[in-house]
Amino acid sequence: SLAVLQDLEDGLKKADADPSVKAVMICGENGKFSAGADIRGFSSPKRPGVGLAPIVSLIESSEKPVVAAIEGVALGGGLEVALGCHYRIAHVKARMGLPEVTIGLLPGAEGTQRLPRLIGVPAALDIITTGKHIPATEALKLGLVDEIVEENTIEAAIRLANKV
């Protein structure tokens, strides 16, 4: 939603400007990182506000380490947010993917550029063109996530942020 995007932008800018903040952790709520955009909003009139691609670029360009704590799902725009992060930790039961292609939409926040850079062209093309959901264990093998945990991903992400 526009509110979530605005909160992400505001939080990132505030963290970058605060010298006492050493790292940033992005997580979802209620056991889910993000299932991406609400498709019903695609047909509504364009409203002023921040877009997802500039937010992902803002995350990526942060001078402070940004860690994604992925629980549940990181799909579509949610995965693109995670791809903008410098590090990604996923719960062992998490799933990731770009399912919007199954309804004829291309990922719109530069996931088609970031994913191949991270995991290589062949694996990225498979994910981008099929829309399949990748389990955390496969994501780790591909290099999509840096670590998987069976415990609290937020605590694990904070530990990683403190380490880096």
TrEMBL record:
Pfam family name, one: ECH_1
Gene3D superfamilies, A to Z: 2-enoyl-CoA Hydratase, Chain A, domain 1 (3.90.226.10)
Gene from which the chain derives: Ehhadh_0
Molecular function, one GO term: enoyl-CoA hydratase activity
Protein name, per record: Peroxisomal bifunctional enzyme
Provenance organism: Menura novaehollandiae (superb lyrebird)
Example of a GO cellular component annotation carried by this entry: peroxisome
Superkingdom of source: Eukaryota
GO biological process, one term: fatty acid beta-oxidation
CDD domains according to UniProt: crotonase-like
Coiled-coil residue spans: none
Catalytic activity: a (3S)-3-hydroxyacyl-CoA + NAD(+) = a 3-oxoacyl-CoA + NADH + H(+); (2S,3S)-3-hydroxy-2-methylbutanoyl-CoA = (2E)-2-methylbut-2-enoyl-CoA + H2O; (3E,5Z)-tetradecadienoyl-CoA = (2E,5Z)-tetradecadienoyl-CoA; (3Z)-hexenoyl-CoA = (2E)-hexenoyl-CoA
UniProt keyword terms in alphabetical order: Isomerase, Lyase, Multifunctional enzyme
Signal peptide annotation: none
Family, per entry: In the C-terminal section; belongs to the 3-hydroxyacyl-CoA dehydrogenase family. Belongs to the enoyl-CoA hydratase/isomerase family.
